[in-house]
């Protein structure tokens, strides 16, 4: 019984020792978890979360095993950080596993073990909370400007459809292809939604619009796809100012949102009346003339009505924002979009 109760603690003891056999077993389990995660990544919840959690557990066990093997070989455990780097990490693991143990004096200290175990528990908690409660997303398109810009890296938290409110920015799976989309909830179940000459109508009542100046940005390639923004002003050359008309809408219930208008007579500025089915929602992008949303059927590139079961999370917080091609390029991070709440 004593041996069993101490087993979880030994798995987190960075000053312990690990045989080469154990290292190979842990590496095998880690690679297996990667394969399973890839197969579950596009599956509905909870399968995708289970895959992520499996990888997280594998990373923790692999890190501990590598630290212990490095200690046995008389080398610094910090080299185990290479195991977190794709490709190079796998090679590093293989090198670490073939190192010969040395007859070294173990300098493990109870405080060090507590700190190491605490750090690994914190890492485990991060993986568990990620799988259960929150998800990160990177915005690749401009359909939600000005609330979300191309390159915004945000956190979204799990949400129940019963807690959704009109105006929430949510992440959902596309009804036909399962791809993650992010839009704003406009129509609730049984609502009647229509666009008339660019004005939004909900349940046959016009949503008040108030002009709010212009939204300005540079006409240049944005994000990983290097797409150019659409502009309301004609004849813009690369590097020049790109403008869009900005409006404030007051939704039923009093919530205000900011939307953009590019074309005074856009293709979806006037629509038929959409009656939202039970257990479904009507989504719109804030960049109204540049959003494939519920105004368009899923079969022609839109999203149609979104079933409640497809909504996975609500956008909460923009951690940071990258204006460049790669999110890791810190020189392109926008100085005014750190820890910014999603409105």
Structure overview:
This protein is α+β, with helices and mostly antiparallel strands. It folds into two domains: 2-132, no CATH class; 137-341, Ribbon (Umud Fragment, subunit A). 26% of the residues lie in helices and 24% in strands. It is built from five helices and 15 strands. Strands 1, 2, 3, 4, 12, 13, 14 and 15 form an eight-stranded antiparallel sheet that branches. Strands 7-6-5-11 form a four-stranded antiparallel sheet, with no helix packed on it. α2 packs antiparallel against α3.
Write the layout of secondary structure elements.
Layout: H1 2-10, H2 20-40, H3 47-72, H4 88-98, H5 110-132, E1 134-138, E2 152-158, E3 169-173, E4 180-187, E5 192-196, E6 199-202, E7 205-206, E8 209-218, E9 241-250, E10 256-261, E11 274-275, E12 280-284, E13 306-307, E14 311-321, E15 340-341
Antiparallel strand pairs: 1-2, 2-14, 3-4, 3-14, 4-12, 5-6, 5-11, 6-7, 8-9, 9-10, 12-13, 14-15
- The helix/strand order is HHHHHEEEEEEEEEEEEEEE
CATH topology of the largest domain: Umud Fragment, subunit A
CATH class designation of the largest domain: Mainly Beta
Domain count: the total is: 2
What does the oligomeric state look like here? single chain
Mean pLDDT: 78
User: Could you give a short account of the major beta sheet?
Assistant: 8 strands, antiparallel
How many alpha or pi helices? Answer: 5
Radius of gyration: 25 Å
The global form is elongated
Q: Low-confidence segments, ≥5 residues, pLDDT <50?
A: 1-13, 104-109
SSE-based structural type = alpha+beta
**Total strand count, please?**
15
Terminal CA distance: 54 Å
Beta-strand portion reads: 15-25%
**In the CATH hierarchy, what is the superfamily of the largest domain?**
Umud Fragment, subunit A
Helix content: 25-40%
* CATH architecture descriptor of the largest domain: Ribbon
């Amino acid at each position: 019984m004593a041996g069993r109760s101490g087993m979880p603690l030994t798995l987190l003891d960075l000053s312990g020792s690990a045989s080469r056999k154990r290292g190979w077993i842990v590496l095998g389990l880690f690679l297996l978890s990667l394969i399973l995660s890839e197969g579950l990544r596009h599956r509905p919840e909870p399968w995708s979360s289970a895959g992520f959690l499996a990888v997280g557990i594998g990373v923790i066990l692999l890190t501990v095993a590598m630290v212990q093997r490095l200690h046995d070989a008389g080398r610094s455990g910090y080299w185990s950080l290479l195991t977190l780097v794709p490709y190079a990490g796998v090679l590093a693991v293989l090198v670490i596993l073939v190192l010969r143990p040395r007859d070294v004096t173990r300098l493990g200290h109870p405080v060090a073990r507590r700190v190491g175990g605490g750090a690994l528990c914190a890492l485990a908690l991060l993986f568990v909370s990620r799988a259960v409660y929150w998800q990160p997303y990177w915005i690749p398109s401009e359909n939600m400007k000005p609330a979300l810009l191309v390159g915004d890296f945000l956190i979204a938290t799990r949400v129940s459809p019963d807690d959704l409110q009109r105006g929430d920015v949510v992440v959902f799976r596309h009804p036909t292809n399962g791809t993650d989309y992010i839009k704003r909830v406009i129509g609730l179940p049984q609502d009647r939604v229509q666009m008339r000459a660019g004005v939004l109508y909900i349940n046959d009542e016009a949503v008040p619009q108030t002009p709010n100046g212009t939204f300005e940005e540079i006409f240049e390639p944005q994000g990983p796809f290097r797409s150019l923004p659409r502009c309301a002003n004609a004849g813009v050359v690369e590097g020049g100012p790109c403008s869009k008309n900005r409006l404030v809408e007051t939704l039923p219930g009093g919530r205000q949102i900011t939307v953009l208008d590019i074309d005074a007579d856009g293709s979806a500025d006037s629509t038929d009346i959409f009656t939202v089915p039970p257990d479904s929602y009507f989504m719109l992008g804030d960049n109204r003339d540049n959003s494939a949303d519920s105004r368009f059927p899923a079969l022609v590139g839109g999203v149609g009505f979104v079933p409640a079961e497809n909504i996975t999370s609500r956008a909460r917080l923009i951690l940071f924002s990258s204006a460049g091609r790669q999110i890791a390029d810190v020189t392109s991070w926008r100085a005014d979009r750190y820890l910014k709440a999603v409105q």
